[in-house]
Design brief:
alpha/beta, Rossmann fold, nine-stranded mixed sheet, 7 helices, 30% helix
Length: 311
C-alpha cells in the first residue's frame, strides 16, 4: 500500500513539475496580441521589376504601431489571384538573407505570392546603436509574443492585397521562424497549411511564461509543443534533421508527438543547414508540393498554378 501511494505521489509531483515548466496553453485564449481593426497604412515601392515577377518593398503598421518593412514577391502570370505563402527565416536572418530570398523566388516560380517581414529587432528594425544580443537572449518571452503579434498584422496586410487568394494562405518557417510560426498558426485560422523546417518544441526553459507563481505575473505558454495540436485538422509538414545542434532531435520529436491529425514528419540525415543535401529539392518536394496539394481549391479559379522550370 505504501509503495502504491509513493508511486502515485511521485507521478503527481512529476506532472505538477511538467505543468509548471511548460505552462500548458489555455484551451481558447490566443497567447499573443491581435488587432485586426487597427489601420495598416500600407506603403510600397518597387525593388525590382523582373521578367517573371515583381519585387516590392512594403511597409505596414505592426502591433505596437511601429512600421514593419517586408519584401513582397508577385508572380507575373495570367492569374489575378495567387496562392500565398508567408515565409519566415531563422533567428539570425532578415528579409534580405540569401537563403530566404532564394526560397522565396522558388515559391514564386511555383505561382505563389510571397511575403517575408523584418521581425522586431531584425533587418531594418535592428537598433543601429546596439549590438545583436546573444541568440538565446533573442528568444525571450516578450520577443516571441511580439513576433507572433506582428505575424498577425502581416496576415491582416495580405488579406487586403488584390493579388492574394485569401482562401489559399500558407505559412512556412525555418528554425526560429518555424518555432514562432507553429504557435502563431495554431491560433490563426486564415492560414490553411503550414510547413516547418528544423523547428521544435518542448523546450524546458524558454517561452513558458512561468517566471512567477503569482497568477498576476504568470503568463500562458508560447512553447510550440503546447500549441501545435491546435493546427489540426489543417495540414502540417515538419522537416527535421538528425544531426541538428541548434534544434536538437529531442525537441523535434517532442513537436512531432504533440502534433495532431493531418501532420507528417520527414527526417534527413544532415545538420541544421542541410549541408550535403539538395535543399532546393527538399523545399520543392517536401514543402512546396505539399502546400499545392493541400491548399483549398480556389473558388475563383479551380486550376493549380503552373510550375515554371527551375532557374
Amino acid at each position: 500500500m505504501q509503495v502504491t501511494i509513493a508511486i502515485k505521489t511521485t507521478c503527481a509531483v512529476f506532472l505538477c513539475i511538467c505543468n509548471a515548466l511548460t505552462g500548458l496553453a489555455a484551451e481558447s485564449a490566443i497567447p499573443f496580441r491581435v488587432d485586426h481593426n487597427a489601420p495598416l497604412e500600407g506603403t510600397e515601392s518597387i525593388v525590382k521589376d523582373a521578367a517573371d515577377h515583381l519585387h516590392l518593398r512594403v511597409e505596414f503598421n505592426g502591433i505596437d504601431g511601429d512600421r514593419v518593412p517586408a519584401f513582397l514577391y508577385i508572380p507575373k502570370d495570367e492569374n489575378e489571384k495567387h496562392p500565398t505563402v508567408f515565409l519566415q527565416y531563422g533567428s539570425g536572418g532578415s528579409k534580405k538573407t540569401d537563403y530566404i530570398v532564394q526560397i522565396g523566388k522558388q515559391f514564386v516560380d511555383n505561382g505563389f505570392v510571397v511575403l517575408t517581414i523584418d521581425s522586431a529587432f531584425r533587418g531594418e528594425r535592428r537598433h543601429s546603436d546596439k549590438k545583436d544580443p546573444f541568440v538565446l537572449k533573442q528568444m525571450d518571452y516578450r520577443r516571441f509574443e511580439h513576433y507572433c503579434a506582428d505575424y498577425s498584422r502581416a496576415v491582416d496586410y495580405l488579406m487586403q492585397r488584390k493579388e492574394v487568394d485569401t482562401e489559399r494562405l500558407a505559412f512556412v518557417g525555418i528554425s526560429w521562424g518555424a518555432i514562432t510560426g507553429i504557435t502563431f498558426v495554431a491560433h490563426e485560422p486564415r492560414i490553411k497549411v503550414m510547413g516547418s523546417l528544423v523547428g521544435g518544441g518542448g523546450f524546458p526553459v524558454f517561452f513558458t511564461g512561468r517566471e512567477s507563481d503569482d497568477p498576476e505575473i504568470a503568463r500562458p505558454s508560447l512553447d510550440p509543443a503546447d500549441h501545435v495540436g491546435k493546427i489540426a485538422p489543417r495540414p502540417l509538414v515538419m522537416v527535421n534533421v538528425t544531426l541538428d545542434l541548434l534544434v536538437a532531435p529531442m525537441f523535434a520529436k517532442a513537436l512531432h508527438a504533440a502534433a495532431g491529425k493531418n501532420s507528417s514528419a520527414i527526417w534527413y540525415e544532415t545538420d541544421h543547414y542541410f549541408n550535403g543535401q539538395d535543399r532546393t529539392k527538399i523545399v520543392q518536394e517536401d514543402v512546396i508540393d505539399f502546400l499545392l496539394e493541400h491548399l483549398p481549391v480556389s473558388r475563383r479559379k479551380r486550376n493549380k498554378p503552373k510550375r515554371r522550370s527551375g532557374r
